[in-house]
Amino acid sequence: MAGPDTVTITESNFEQVVLQADQPVLVDFWAEWCGPCKAIGPAIDELATEYKGRAVIGKVNVDENQGLGSQCEVSAIPTLLIYKGGQVRERIVGLRAKKELATVLDRILG
User: Which domains does the chain have, with CATH numbers?
Assistant: First the structure.
């Protein structure tokens, strides 16, 4: 379901991929059964390609990684968390336009 530049994030690689990253990381918490998650998916994959080398864009399947959803306080999906320096800098809940997500990423990339 992920594009070629989109990273699959799991409980086993979360610390390395997200918390220890030297670039900002956008994490999309989603599920197969979630309509809005499927709707935002292509935009996430496009951002992964467009921001390659500047930011990491990844997806967490909450059904397969329930502990991670709880750990990150995800109560609704889609939820997008943008990390920088191992800390959440932005939390976006619900379906958003790709342009809005790019604006937030650009601001965090500063």
Answer: 7-101 (3.40.30.10)
